[in-house]
Design a protein that fits this description.
Radius of gyration of chain A: 19 Å
Order of helices and strands of chain A: EEEHEEHEEHEHEHEEEH
Largest sheet of chain A: 8 strands, mixed
Number of strands of chain A: 12
Strand content of chain A: 25-35%
Structural class of chain A: alpha/beta
Oligomer: homodimer
Chain lengths: 221, 221
């Protein structure tokens, strides 16, 4: 049976050994997608950031911390997968350097920056789904084509931004949901194709939404 | 019996509805201290940031998200406590404003900041333990004196920095431990008094360290 890759959970970008930048993401949608995919007969590989959620025992699970690591492991696993679903919320900015020692408040108070302000210069992290999009095999490929599904969590202009995202990452479908979905157990989502058509609307538990989405992926292969 | 306050876990400073800055902290030391304090006969109130750890059922637990909230709730609870232990790792920087909408990668790509850099201007959050230190009652107070114990997690110059911290926050004891303690289940800690004397050295499980520290607090009242 075909194998698919699911990215799940947040990633962390450390500023020093203690402080980090991250995203609110529980990994519950990734876990629900893994369960729905196993039910549908897929083999499942998951690459996940630090989460407390339990993934299905039958899935292969690879743990990562940073976005760079998630991209590397995802690229490694994607080769023998039929498709990938990006349910992770990778942290998209990172500091230019990671301090090896914890920044100390005493350092700031003693230093020139005595008004307690800190300017943090951040750069973009690699885009995990765009990296998969760049190596995705077309349907004409003799080894078989591959598909990609991204998630868009936007608080405004959701369809416009979601379609930009779909095209930038070379995805086949994009799931649009609002910020209410982040940590909750229920969810509502619209599934759009590259032309902006609403191919499905799903609501209910995260597992309900996951089953609806997995049913759509079966039409892609 | 006397009541004590324990701060525990990380806090989060959101940049927008999705992204936040935080500290690595599991809340396990706070939970161990609560258990040790209950065993010693203290009543226990805990103010905690978002954690997965379970606190003892007999403790009063107040949930917060940001450092400002932790400071406000801690100040509220501290009045009728004999002492407080700061085992939390409050996030010490926050953005000047929290965006109400998620920052979008499309905004950056379209905008002037097209090289993907982001300058984040941060300011210090309120210092929770220093706020308690500022209202702490002296031993001569007719309502009874109060004590404060801080934690210092430093990766270098640990004693010097820890003592600076103790004096800045007006604490009676400070617990010094290394970064290995952050998420692990075992711990090693030195307990220093305001003159820099090593009053105790504790190692073993977090509960062992917690019991040793609680025994020291009993001498403060």
């Amino acid at each position: 049976m075909a194998k698919i890759l699911i990215t799940s959970g947040p990633t962390r970008q450390y500023l020093d050994p203690i402080r980090y930048l991250t995203n609110a993401s529980s990994g519950r949608m990734g876990a629900a997608l893994a369960q729905a995919a196993l039910e549908a007969g897929y083999e499942v590989a998951i690459v996940t950031g630090p989460v407390e959620v339990e993934y299905p025992k039958d899935a292969i699970v690879k743990q990562v911390v940073s976005t760079e690591q998630m991209k590397d492991v995802a690229l490694e696993l994607f080769g023998d997968c039929e498709g990938a679903i990006g349910a992770a919320a990778p942290c998209d900015y990172q500091p230019f350097s990671i301090l090896t020692e914890k920044m100390s408040k005493e350092d700031f108070i003693r230093g020139e920056d005595s008004n307690g302000e800190l300017l943090l210069r951040l750069r973009e992290t690699p885009d995990v789904m765009a990296a998969l999009g760049a190596v995705k095999r077309e349907a004409s490929d003799p080894r078989g084509g591959q598909w990609l599904v991204a998630f868009a969590l936007e608080t405004s202009d959701s369809h416009v931004k979601a379609l930009q995202k779909l095209h930038r990452k070379r995805c086949d479908l994009i799931v649009v949901n609002g910020p209410n979905s982040i940590n909750g157990s229920t969810s509502a989502a619209e599934i759009l194709d590259p032309t902006g058509n609403l191919v499905a609307y799903a609501c209910g538990s995260k597992l309900d939404v996951a089953r609806r989405l997995i049913a759509e992926t079966l039409k892609l292969s």
